[in-house]
Each structure stands twice: as structure tokens, then as C-alpha cells.
Design goal:
It is a single chain. The chain is mainly α and 201 residues long. It has 2 domains: 78 residues; 97 residues. The chain is built from 8 helices and no strands. Helix 1 packs antiparallel against helix 2, helix 5 runs antiparallel to helix 6 and helix 6 packs antiparallel against helix 7. The N terminus is likely disordered.
Length: 201
């Protein structure tokens, strides 16, 4: 496979431009109304752009840290009664999970970073205010992170994800959401069944 480095450079410039534009939007709104919900949206976009930079530019840790910070700042602007709060916290946790590997079995004390990641995922997964898709994604991420230390809990978490997904009423969902349910249900059931079998449940 031949790599066109001109395309790579252009893609990197596009990413950097996206980060710069999102940062300008955040700074502009912060100058007038720091708690404006619109600022949370731009912060989330800044987080997504920063994570893209992390993924496509040699996994630069500082870009990932910027993404986490942006998501957490977005969550601080909205209240816990807002479903977006849990989505922003989930996105922060998902990014944060890449900063440090999860402890091996037998570790009584999880490092603070890992503990924080798991707490945020549990928060998003267990909240009935969070969107169903966010709860399912948070549950799957949580199950993967805790499976080495608590396989039974990971299995139960995945079983709950299947229940949440199955309880969604397809007739009441828009086309994109129905496609999400149909595409994800099979994989989620398989993942839950495999984990439960390994756990002996």
C-alpha cells in the first residue's frame, strides 16, 4: 500500500484547524457567558477534535489530556438533570481509559486515574437520565475495564446492557436509532454470553 503523505499532511492540518476553530468558539462564548449551554457543545466538539489529533498524530498524550479536560468542562456547565451531562462524562472516561492500563487481577488499590474512569462509567451507565445509547456504551466500556478484577460484575453489566437495548421500542425510534439497535444487539448479546460463559454464570 502506497501512502500519499500529502494527503496525510492535509488531514493533519484539517485536524489542527478543527481544534483551533473549536477553541476560538469556546473562548468567545466564555468571554460573554461562561455558563452558556452552547459553550458546552463547543467544548465537546473541541474534545472530539483533540481526540482525533491524538488518534491520528502519533498518539500524543497532551492531545488526549486536552480532550478529557474539554469533556469534563462541558459536563460542569450542564446540570446532572441534563442527559448531555452523562454523555460528556462518558466521553471523558472513554478517553481517560487510554491514559493508563487497568490493573491486573489481585490489585486491591486501583490508581486514582483508573478509579476515576470507572466511577464516571458507572455513573453514566446507572443513570436513568442518560440516553439509552450512552448507558449501553458506558456499560460495555465499564465491563471491559473491570473484567480482569470482577468478571461476575462485568457479566452482570453486559446483561443489563442487553436489557436496556432490548427494552428500546423500535417503533418509537428514528431510523438512525433503529439501525443502532439492530446492528448492536447481536454483537452485545454475543459479548455478554461469552463473558458470562467465562465467568461460569
Amino acid at each position: 500500500m502506497v501512502v500519499d503523505f500529502r494527503v496525510v499532511k492535509r488531514a493533519n492540518r484539517d485536524l489542527e484547524d478543527a481544534v483551533a476553530l473549536a477553541r476560538k468558539a469556546v473562548e468567545y462564548i466564555a468571554g460573554s457567558k461562561p455558563a452558556n449551554p452552547g459553550r458546552a457543545i463547543y467544548l465537546a466538539q473541541l474534545g472530539a477534535a483533540s481526540r482525533d489529533v491524538w488518534e491520528y498524530q502519533n498518539l500524543k498524550t497532551e492531545a488526549l489530556r486536552r480532550a478529557i479536560q474539554s469533556y469534563l468542562q462541558a459536563a460542569e456547565i450542564v446540570t446532572p438533570t441534563n442527559p448531555d451531562y452523562y454523555e460528556y462524562r462518558f466521553l471523558a472516561a472513554n478517553a481517560q481509559a487510554h491514559l493508563a492500563p487497568i490493573a491486573q487481577p489481585g490489585h486491591d488499590e486501583l490508581p486514582e486515574l483508573q478509579r476515576s474512569t470507572i466511577n464516571m462509567l458507572e455513573e453514566a451507565f446507572s443513570s436513568e437520565l442518560a440516553a439509552a445509547q450512552v448507558r449501553i456504551r458506558a456499560g460495555r466500556s465499564l465491563a471491559r475495564l473491570i473484567s480482569k478484577d470482577d468478571l461476575a460484575k462485568a457479566s452482570e453489566t453486559l446483561r443489563s446492557c442487553v436489557t436496556i437495548l432490548a427494552d428500546l421500542a423500535p417503533a418509537q425510534l428514528e431510523m438512525a436509532d433503529r439501525q443502532f439497535v439492530l446492528a448492536d444487539l447481536g454483537m452485545l448479546v454475543s459479548e455478554a454470553a461469552t463473558t458470562m460463559a467465562i465467568a461460569g454464570l
